[in-house]
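Re: beginner question about structure tokens

> Can someone show what the tokenized structure looks like for a real chain? I only ever see the sequence side.

Sure, here's an example I had lying around. Input first:
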Amino acid sequence: MLRRLYDWTIGLAQSPYAMWGLALVAFLESSVFPIPPDILMIPMIIAMPRKAFLIAGVALVSSVAGGMLGYYIGWGLFESIGRPVLEFYGKDAYFDEFAVRYNEWGAWMVLMAGVTPFPYKVITILSGSTGLNFGVFMISSIIARGLRFFVVAGLLWKFGEPIREFIEKRLGLMFVLLVVLLLAGFYVVKFI
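And the corresponding structure tokens:
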């Protein structure tokens, strides 16, 4: 099933409706869809390098809008479904404690998920369920998703097809290393 979904996504990148398809995939990926928008972005930018930054902009706006849906899902469904289940098992106090800890680092969690291969949808829903400040969530989402999509667009615009393999295989790892270095730096500054 996932392979058919992947093939459909690649086919969409070659259609006249590619930009609309990218917007839809980026929107849904931020809350429910398993395929990242990069799968559409990369072939679109290689085919139309002059539109690289427009394509990245469409992915950014759609992804952040989808993140708002994910936040709403976490916020709305948690109170109606999640909290009663936790209360039944006597674990609601544990979640409240977790929510406080998560919200202390929430901006960093959104930034980290927004640029790394970690599923962004998990963080959007978790941010809503823990009540992370919506403004913090939005700013972090815009920075993270903008960085991710515009770095990919910039690399493809500058280097074209030869950079494609690097982006598909190693860019996620590079973003993860960047996040680890940033977190390590903040840890050193704060605790040493």
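Each token stands for a local structural state, so reading them left to right follows the chain. Residues 52-88 form the longest helix (37 residues).
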